[in-house]
Specification:
- This protein has 150 residues and is mostly helical.
- Helix content is 73%, strand content 0%.
- It has 5 helices and no strands.
- Helix 1 runs antiparallel to helix 2.
- The termini are far apart.
Length: 150
Amino acid sequence: MLVATAAALLLRRGPDRLAEIRALQQAALAEGTAPAADLGRIIRNADRMSREQLRAVRDELVADWRQRYREGVDRYLAAPAADKTALLDEQIDRMNAVCALLDALNPTANPGRHPRLPRPDGDSGPAATTYQQALATRAGQRRVRLPTFR
C-alpha cells in the first residue's frame, strides 16, 4: 500500500512539474526575459525529470521559439521604420531568454558556456538575411551578445 501511494504521488507530481515548466517557458518567451527565480524553479524541476520528459519540454520550447522567430521576421519586415528597433530589441531579448531556458533544462550544462540556439526554420533567403543582419547590428549597438545558431 505504501509503495502504491508513493508511486501515485510521484506520478501525480510529474505532470505538475511539466505544467510549471511550460508555463514559465511561455511567460519567458512572451516577456523576452527569464528571471533568475524562474530559472531556478526550472532547474529544480528539470533535475527531477526523466530524459524523455526533458527532451519533450526542450522540443516544445524550440518549436515555440521557431514560430515566434518567424513571426518576428514577418512583423519586422511589415513594420514602419519607427517600430523596427523595438521589434529587434524584443527578438534579441527573446533569443537570450531561450538560451537561458535551454541551459536551465540541461542538467549537464556548463555554466560558463553560452548554449547555441537551434537554427530557425526558413533561415535562408533575402528576408531572413536582412533580418539577421539587422539583429546583429542592433545587438552590437546595445552591446549585447547575440546567441549563435547550431
